[in-house]
Every structure is written in C-alpha cells, then in structure tokens.
Write a structure and sequence with these properties.
Helix content of chain A: 25-40%
Number of helices of chain A: 15
Structural class of chain A: alpha/beta
Largest interface: A-B, 73 and 73 residues
Largest sheet of chain A: 10 strands, mixed
Oligomer: homodimer
Radius of gyration of chain A: 24 Å
Number of strands of chain A: 16
C-alpha cells in the first residue's frame, strides 16, 4: 500500500487563489493523506496577503504576482484557484503552460471562453492542463467521461450544474415563496453571491456545460454556442403546476450530439418528469446524466461546490499528475471523430438553431384577463398552428385579481412553430404580458 | 483529437471467454471507436470453438488452452472473461502475470477469493491487473474510488450490486407476487441463472463488495469476512409493510471503515428509507453510494451487467493501459493507511463480529397464532430486554388463516441484544417459526 504513494514523484505546488478552495487544498497537503506525501507547497499568491484566513500561510513563499509564481522554477504544478475568465488567472495559466508546467484549475469561465487557445498552448509546450474541479465540484465526471467511458460514443450529457439555482428552485418549490424573496435569503445565507447574475442567468452552468460537451464530443469548448436562459421568470405557480402534472422544474444544462459531432447546447429551466433521475436532485446538489453506447445511461450525483468537494477534485488531478498520467485537455471518449460515429448508434439530429431544435413537449404559462371567450381564442389559435394541447390548467382567480394564469403543455412539436403561435398571442387583447415557455424532459 | 489515440502504443489482446461480454468486446475492437484504433486481437479461447456466436471469430488464432493464450508472446494484454474463482480462469491469469503481461478481467469471484495472491504476483512481475468490469458493470466506480477520490478518506461504501436480486425484489414489490414465482419468471426471461444460488444468496454481491472495500480501504479483498444473507426469505408482506413505513427493501451491500482500517462488510436485505438515493434504484440497475471526506456523499447509478456495460468497462481498462497509466491492484484513496486516518473524520467503530455491530434500527417480522395476549407477551419480552419499539403493524388475519404476521421496528439497538430477545420468542408458544430481522438504513 505504501509503495503506491511513496514511489511517486514528489510535486511542488504553486497555489494562486486562497479562498475556501485554496484553504481546503492547503489543508489536504498539510494533512495525513496521500496528497501530504507527494506534494509540497513552493509558494502562494492571492489578492491580499494580510487577510485573515483559516489556514496558516506564513511558512509559504508569498508572490504578489501570480504570473511570477506560475513561472517560478520551484513550481512543478501551478494550481489556479483565482477565477475569472481573463486578467491574472488567464495570464498566470498561460505563463505556466509556456514554461511547460502542469496546470490544475477550477476555473470554468477561463476554460469555457479560452479553452481552445489554452489547449493549443498546452499541446505546444507538452504541458498537462487538468480541470476536474471546474465542473460539478466533487463529482469526478470529467474522469468518468474521458477515461471511464473512453470506449463509448456519448450521445447526450445533461445535468444540474449550478447549486445556487437548484437551491433557489428547491426552496421556492418547498415554501411557495417568490424568486426574489428566496434569492435574498440565499444571499444572506451565503448560498448566492452579492451579484447573483452569473448564477441565476444560467451563465455559470453554461460554462460548465461547454466543458462537458467538449470532453464528451471531443471538440473544444464553445461557450458562445450555448443557449442560455435563467431562472428569474419562474414563479411559485410554475413550480406548483409542474408538480401537479408530475414534473419538477430544474435549470437543466443539456448537450446532445448532432451529426458531424456538433453539439446542441442549452441551459434553460425545464420540466423534468418525476421519474427522471434529475427530478430528485434537490438543494445545492449537482447531478450529471450521461447517455452513451454501449454503456447505457449513467447518473452521477454529489456536492457541486464548496471547499471540500472542490479541493477533492483539485487534489485528484494533482495525484494523477504524480502518477504520470497524461490526457489531452478535452478529447474524451470523443476520440470518436465525426467519421467514426457508430453506424448503429443514434447520431441525433443535425445541428440547427435553438429556435428550431428537435421535437419536444413544451410547458406554456400565460396570463389572461378573466373574461369569457379567452380560452377559446387561445386554443383556436394553437389549433390553427397545428399544435395539440396535452394538458390544460386554469385555477379560479385569486381574490381581487382581474387576471388568471393559464398553464398548458403541448404534444411534441418544434419550438419554432410554438413560438410562431405565441407571437400571435400579442394580438389577443385578453393576453397580458409575454408567455413563459419551458421544454419537458421525460 | 486524433493525436490523442494515434500516439498510443498499440496493444495486442488475447481474449479468453467468448460469451456476451467477450462478444461485446470483439464488437468494440472491430468497430470504429477508440478501441479499434489501438487494439488488435492476437487470439481467442473459449470452451467450445464451434458454438454459434453473434461475432465472427474465424479470423482470430484459436487456443484450446487459455493458459497458452495468456503466455503467448503475441499477447500484450490478457483479457479474462471466463469466470469462476478457480480452474482455467485462475491458471490463465496467473500465467499472464508471471509473464509480466497486463491482465484485464471481469471476474469478481476470482479476485474476491484470491485477490491478495494475485496482487502479490502482479507486483512481483511488474504487471498491471485491472478489473473495473468486475463490479457494477458499466459504472466506473473503481476508477472513481481509486483515482477520482484519491485524496479522500472513505468512511463507507454501500450499494445495490446484484441486478438479479434487485429485479426480483422490484417485481415482488410491484406485483405482490411471491419470491419463487418471480424467480421462475426471471429465469424464463434470462434475468436469473438456471442455478440462481450465487445471486440470490448474496454471494455475488459479496464478491463485489469485498473488491470495493479493498479499493476503498486499501486492503486486499477479504470475501470470507463478508456477512452474507440472501433474499429467499423476503415475502410480499415484507415489501408492503416496508413501503407503508416509508422504506423499500433492497439487498444492500455495505462496507464501513472501522478503526485500524478494517472494514465491516455485509450483504443483507435492508430497509432503505425512501429518501435515500438507493431506494429508487429499481429493476436490473446497480448503484453505489460513497461517503468520503472531504468530498461528501457521491452516488453513481447505471447498468450493472450485460454485454454493453461490461464491455465498456473492459475497454476502458485496455485504453488506460494504452495510455500507460499504472495503478496498484487494490490500493485506492486508501493510501490512507491505518496511521493516517484524519483525526477529524469519524473513524467508525472497531471491527467486531456481525452479531454485535453498531447501533441500528431493525425491522422484525414474525408470525403468531391469532389469539388473545400474544402481542402483550412479545412486547413485554422486548421491554425486558430494554428494546424500544418504534412502530408496530398487525393487519387483520386473512380468511381461514389461524395465524397473522406481526411487523415491528425497533429504536436504535445492538443486533446482539435484539437477537437475544428473539431467541426467547421460541419459548412463546404462540410464535410460529423464526423471526425475520432486517436493519434499517436512513
């Protein structure tokens, strides 16, 4: 047993970013586990040297400039935990790769937006760039996709990748309270940032999805191609109606393989059938569901953020480097190139704009004036667009309200056709505001 | 992308065992995916050369003797898919290791019973022995434990590891039919073997658990230490009562870390609380739940058997070998030896016989004559043993029956104390037969 670790090459770390994850990592190096036996810390860097921290950094060399730390000859592995898609994080990672050093990072924004360039730099300098911690925290999903399923053709990857949104939706569902109220509480509790935009807009989940799609489908990440929709418009009525229909609402990140290996990527609130493994992922948990051939469906669930899970993932990457493992930055099972997609497997649909997309059932919520004939006009309008209604909910109006929400779900249709019909709702004078549209996932 | 695979060292496989998994693997080598680019087949071996198979083996060199194939100079990786803990499988694996060749196997019985000896042989000859396919089919749980959680201290691993038992229990629960009926159907459908003993006795799940415990806690497998209990005694009444109480019954395989790194290992029917991730693993699915520090709880779910999932795992091991990855046979995160268990983590209880064990709630079902005073005598007997009842169920007797089942659950207690009380039930003349005892898992 001892042999396994003691035979490994010791690694000297340079750690940039000393927040909760950096603190967790220093704890693992200072502890009694495997990381303590193969890693030492050559130097650290952060915005503020003097800030009070849970871990004692006084024994480590201090670097004001993370770029200097990244390129320092005493550093074998540069660990980037600063965050941010540009600025010091990017400069420091590039400096480390140029120096041929291995880099381990938890920075999803950096990789999602500059992954292709960093992949090229790593290849040019023979450096390893590892990022297990960037997606789904402690869940070793990158390893599962890239190594565990290396002989598989992946057809789809979906999941709940943002714990803040999942916590907010779970709390709204549990308590019936409105988005703004629950968000304010989440901010007070430290579950949401002071500026929550990156989370609630879906951008953070989109960064992670672009990375998963890159490793699943062997491309480089293409964050610009991810269709993003946030959770701000979801109301307690939506959550209650979804539950009545046998669904839960989750911010679902989903990438499917199309012909030519191009993925359709979207992050949007979605009605998930209660029997789907994602439906019961509540609170701050993350989950990833992988559909692949020949393995079938695989579901991985765990904690998506926090010092412990993220430090666990960073440490695993460091231990893999100590074992001498090498893997390309993104190419995964995805060594299935466009020409080698198995003939027998469903190659999905041609990549096409989000607005067309594949056939799906949809949930539509709109608000209408509470007067006779409105339902008839709406259902007639949908019928003229050849759209069939699968379920229809109208509750009695609340006291004093002169309008009511109407909820319907469609039979499978193209979203473009549905959107075309909804555009005509604007001409129905009883319809108030715009309709909310969400896909259903069975 | 192509570079990732084409740079790898080509590997020549010798495949012994040409059942469904062997056929699935040959399909992957003959296909268009990564395995087809790095692997060729030097020879095959099976019991019968002439038997009709879905794959064409006429172009491969045939070996009547798997040992000769294992040692053949044209074989880089010996793939053992014959099964059986002794006999040809063991001889062939040992021959390959002695020749310094890498071995990939799906043989849980061989590894669970002779793992320590094989580990020593692999180490002595510098050979790799990989076995991802031996546990939970397509779920890359060995990789998750050994690499993904390499910096963690694992405190417990549990799961549903036998698809046949899970299918039978799910069908009994769904239809209310008896064990024997559902088993007979499962045999007709090919979900259970003609001789189902290995599955329904818990031995197959026990083999797998011993392997997971070895990698989680860094020992060698110790199948003899696994406490085994099968599902034969479970009745539709048990499943119905469990559901009423908010639980499902699963054949739970569970290993916990005790002081000194020794694991408590058991496979037994267990009431799983409906909110536990295992509770909803139905039909032939497998699932593994890992509790570890600092990552927290991780749940992996997928298909546990069959040609596709198992071939996927075998192929991943072969691709890891092609990448030059090396890992000890069993040591995992487990490089946490006895002395390095984190002081802050819960080190569990001292290893002790199954009959004592840690505190747990228990389910007890007994059959009693339907006459006055019986309940009073039983509850009094439990009270004299200081055992508190948490719930108690007695349904009206069925027509014509002169006895009724009584179900109770206890508050947390030691199983030894409960067993001592139950032993005294034999002296209560109204009690018929022996009581069934199952632990509760929250």
């Amino acid at each position: 047993v001892e042999r396994a670790v003691s035979d490994l090459k010791p690694l000297r770390l340079g750690i940039a970013g000393l927040g909760t994850v950096g603190g967790g990592l220093i704890g693992l190096v200072a502890g009694s586990g495997p990381l303590s036996r193969i890693a030492t810390i050559s130097g650290v860097s952060a915005r503020s040297r003097g800030r009070s921290r849970e871990v004692d950094i006084s024994s480590f060399a201090w670097f004001d400039d993370p770029v200097a730390l990244a390129a320092h000859p005493d550093v074998d592995v540069f660990v980037e935990l600063m965050g941010g898609s540009d600025g010091p994080a990017r400069l420091a990672v590039e400096a480390a790769l140029r120096a041929g050093k291995s880099v381990v990072t938890a920075n999803k924004a950096l990789l999602a937006e500059h992954g292709a360039a960093l992949q090229a730099q790593a290849a040019a300098h023979g450096a390893q760039l590892r990022w297990e911690a960037a997606v789904a925290g402690g869940i070793p999903v990158v390893k599962a996709l890239r190594e565990g399923l290396s002989a598989n053709a992946i057809s789809a990857v979906c999941g709940v990748l943002n714990g803040t949104c999942n916590y907010i939706l779970t709390e709204m569902d549990r308590t019936g309270r409105a988005f703004g109220d629950v968000l304010a509480d989440a901010q007070r509790l430290g579950y949401a940032e002071a500026d929550p935009t990156l989370d609630v807009s879906g951008a953070d989940a989109g960064h992670k999805l672009a990375l998963l799609a890159a490793v699943a489908f062997s491309g480089a990440p293409d964050f610009g191609a991810v269709c993003l929709e946030g959770i701000e418009a979801i109301t307690p009525t939506d959550l209650e109606s979804a539950r009545f229909l046998g669904y839960r609402i989750k911010l679902l990140a989903k990438a499917t393989r199309g012909a030519g290996g191009i993925a359709l990527q979207s992050v949007r609130p979605t009605l998930i059938h209660q029997d789907h493994p994602i439906a019961r992922i509540d609170g701050p948990l993350n989950a990833v569901v992988i559909d692949a051939e020949p393995v079938g469906r695989l579901t991985l669930t765990g904690r998506g953020a926090g010092a412990g899970p993220t430090a666990s993932a960073v440490a695993a990457d460091i231990l893999d480097l100590a074992h001498g493992d090498t893997r390309p930055v993104f190419a995964g099972p995805g060594s299935y190139g466009p020409d080698s997609w198995p003939a027998g497997a469903d190659a999905g649909t041609q990549a096409e704009p989000h607005s067309t997309g594949p056939l799906s059932r949809f949930y539509v919520r709109l608000r209408v004036a509470d007067r006779p004939g409105v339902i008839a006009r709406i259902t007639d309008l949908l019928a003229r667009h050849q759209l069939s209604i699968e379920s229809f909910l109208q509750k009695p109006p609340e006291a004093m309200a002169d309008s009511v929400p109407i909820i319907l779900t469609t039979q499978p249709c193209h979203e473009t056709d549905l959107r075309a019909a909804i555009a005509e709702f604007a001409g129905v004078d009883a319809v108030i505001g715009t309709a909310l549209v969400m896909p259903l996932e069975l």
